[in-house]
Amino acid sequence: MPAHIGSSRSPARPKPPDWIECKARIAEIARRHNAVFVDFNIPSEITTNDDNYWDPLHYRLPIAERIVADIEEAMATGQDDSDGNYRYLAGPAAGTASPTPE
Prior knowledge:
Layout: H1 17-32, E1 37-39, H2 61-77, E2 87-90
Antiparallel strand pairs: 1-2
């Protein structure tokens, strides 16, 4: 989820090794299960705009709708967002079989 840049879970704060390791392990699990893993918790126009949030962790409804659309785009392209709002960390490449729900 895209936490606000001012949050203690801020994407702009230096990541301790365990945070980086956690994302790597989740990506590996996603790959084994042919699941999509999209990371929105990065510095972006979403996470740096105060108006996008109710508080540091809860984003507003238009952002939620945008995230849904971005996930659909990530699943269709199998690539990072060209605007830098998310990173595609795991899942099938574009044009391959869709992941199956578990």
